[in-house]
Amino acid sequence: MSLHKILKYIALVIGVIGLILWGRVLMAGDDAIENSADVQASVVTPFLYVAYIVFAIIVLLVLFFVIKGLFSGDIMRTLIAVGAFIVVIGIAYLLTSGTERQLNDGTMLSANADHWVGAGLVTFYILAGTAILLMILSGVRKLIN
Fold it and tell me: Can you give the pTM of this predicted structure?
């Protein structure tokens, strides 16, 4: 049996379990879940465990295929890509500043944490802008050819 078929059956089983648990959440209703810790523990917690299991499976598969790709592919190109990503994070960190802030729940967010949140947002903007620009350039190149 191929890996694709195995993963398809695992996804089907997890999907059916998730659908059953989702139905339990819908049948319990919002008010019952919000007002009762017992209902919350018996209805929402299993749904969360399925989400944790799916997340763990995804992380393990990604790590497996990344490591497999590293050893079978060109490691120099991978190191260049990782280095470029680190440079983008460094640029984003230098472009932002952090200030101590009070959050809505009354707790304080440190200046360092605020700085890293800003750097994460700027990193996302840089990478998203680069991706959009490369898609536009690719489309223009296809039109020219």
Answer: 0.56
**One domain, residues 64 and 78:** no
> Which tens digits make up the pLDDT trace of 96-127?
998 898 888 889 989 999 999 999 999 999 99
104 and 132 co-located in one domain: yes
Cβ-count burial 133-142 (b if 16+ within 10 Å, e if not): eeeeeeeeee
Same-domain pairing of 101 and 59: no
pLDDT tens column, 31-59: 777 777 777 777 778 888 888 988 998 89
Do 5 and 58 lie in one domain? The reply is: yes
Q: What is the total count of domains within the chain?
A: 2
Q: What torsion, rounded to 10 degrees, do the Cα atoms 36, 42, 44, 50 define?
A: 170
User: How many CB atoms neighbour CB 121 within 10 A?
Assistant: 12
